[in-house]
Amino acid sequence: MDKDTMFGTRGSDLEEAFFAQQNRRLLAELKQQAEKRDRREALAKATGIHLESILDKLIELDVNVERAAAFTLIPLVEVAWADGEVHDRERKAILEAAAAKGVEPGSIPCQLLEGWLGTKPEPRLLEVWKEYTRALVATFDAEQKAALQHDLLDRARAVAEAAGGFLGVGKISAAEAAMLADLEKAFG
Question: Rounded CA gap, 176 and 37, in Å?
C-alpha cells in the first residue's frame, strides 16, 4: 500500500471515528433534552405551573410529578378545610381548578385530591408542606419565588371565595383568611 492510500485510509478512519463520537455525544444531548422536555411537560400538567424556570428548578431538585402535584394541591385543600368542612362549592372549585391545570380524573393527583376532600388531612401534612415550600423557594430567585407564590395563593384564594358571599362569590371567612395568611408565611 502506498503512502497516499495508507494516509488517505487512516485519515478517513480517523474522520469517521471522530464523527461517530460526535454523533453519539449529540444524540445523547438530544435524548437528554427530550427527557427534560417530557419531565417539564409532565410537571406542568400535574401542577398547573407553566413558568419554565420554575419547572426546570423542580427538575434540577429531582421533584417528581406526584410530589409536585401534592405540593400545589395542599394549599387548596387546607383552605377548603379551614372552617371545619369542605362545602360543595369549594369541592367543585378545587376539582375544576385541578382539571383546568391538567389534573385528569383518575390520575394519582386527582385521587389524592379526592381523598383529601373527603377526609380532612392530618395537621402534619400542612407542616410538611410549609417545610417543603420554605426549602424549595430558598433555591429560587426572586422572580420565580413571586410567580410560584402568586400562582398557589391565587388558586387557594379562589377556593376560599367559592364558598362565601352572595352566590359563593366575594366573601372569605375569618378561618379561610387566617389559613391564607398562614400559607403565605411559608414563602418567607
Answer: 37
AA identity, residue 174:
A
Q: How confident is the model at residue 119 (pLDDT cuts 50, 70, 90)?
A: very high
Backbone angles phi, psi at 93, to 5 degrees: -60, -40
Tell me: pLDDT of 5 over 70: no
CA angle 136, 125, 135 (to 5 degrees): 15
Is-contact 133 187, C-beta < 8 A? yes
Contact 149, 95 (CB under 8 A): no
Lookup result for grid cell 429560587:
140
pLDDT tens digits for range 66-79 = 777 777 888 999 99
Phi and psi at residue 61, in whole multiples of 5°?
A: -85, 5
| Closest residue by Cα to residue 164 from 151, 147, 180 | 180
Kindly report the pTM of this predicted structure: 0.70
